[in-house]
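Async update (no meeting this week)

Hi team, since we skipped the sync, here's where things stand on the single-chain job. The sequence we agreed to prioritize is pasted below, unchanged from the tracker. I ran it this morning and attached the output directly underneath so nobody has to dig for it. Comments welcome in thread, and please keep replies under the output.
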Amino acid sequence: MVVDKKLYNALSIKPDASQDDIKKAYRKAALKHHPDKNKDNPNASEKFKEVSQAYEILSDPEKRKIYDQIGLEALLRGGAASPPPGPDGVGGGGMPFGGFPGFESMGGGGPGGARTFHFSTAGGRGGGGGFSFSNPENIFAEFMRNAGGNAGGEGDEDIFSQFNGGGAGGGPFRSSARFGPGNAGGGGGGRSRGDMAEATVVERPLPVSLEELFKGTHKKMKVKRKTFDSATGRQSVQDKVMEFDIKPGLKAGSKIKFKGAGDQDERGAQDLHFIVSEKEHPVFKREGDDLHARIEIDLKEALTGWRRQISTIDGKQLPLSGGGPTAPGFQERFPGLGMPKSKNPTERGDLIVTINVRFPASLSPSQKSKLQEIL
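Output:
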């Protein structure tokens, strides 16, 4: 039984949430309330701190188990019993919630008054042996590092472009998942995340046409990056041209990686990953190695026969026909006319053509009568 739901409520999840649910909820909340995205909203920083510290406990199965059993207040003081309430109904010594280390109330006042919770990174009054929160930005930094810049998300969303960066070839790379060792959390028994100086990964979308993915192509991407001068300790922004090949048959979601090609600081440089995405094609839709196309015929053609011609992805003309009747949704498969298989480009998937039948919007009584006679 869960004795305290404050941290679950902070992330808007249920106490039986899975680790994957916790990661997704934190990712969504942290990106929403991140100070870099809410510079005109001072309350966002507190909310960001709240969700980050909730994630720090709930993402650790051991700490989460202890929290579920004894609650946040006891966890922060190391499992000690709560002090007796004072005459005003709050904890001994007049401190809200008994003055638990790293925990204080906001609003509410006397007995029966509503209270909201607020975490502190101060490490606790009195320096007890309880759990201490890390700096919320360092919590976010490690979260992003462990997830490779696409933490618990769906699809290939470019997270860092939601802050101050631009798309590939746009503004300077901006990663809010990088913080120095001096930003570590307060004292106590907490683990300092700021001591981890591994380079983060910055991901950028790379839109590529279906024709380029079919044939393969060579790309040049101009990006802006921060460089670090160890002699002066200063950073400057420079342009850098990245060149690489797109192999035939490469799929959306594939990553092209450059080690140390992102922003630099005194600890090193970020890695830069380009993530391939497919531009929308006017004719074909790709599914794996297969290509799908649709052609439309009217009802008369569907009943009596039809002819069409379609251009394949490599520019060849493919004749299509049906003697009728042709049912709506009828499919014809053409082996070996799809996309190259990335592991063996000499082999190709199939082209699958689906027939859409266009029905008339209305029929006159005489037309209906004739159809009834014929059919």
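Quick observations from my side:
DSSP finds eight helices and 17 strands in the chain.
Residues 11 and 25 are 6 Å apart (CA to CA).
Reply here if anything looks off.
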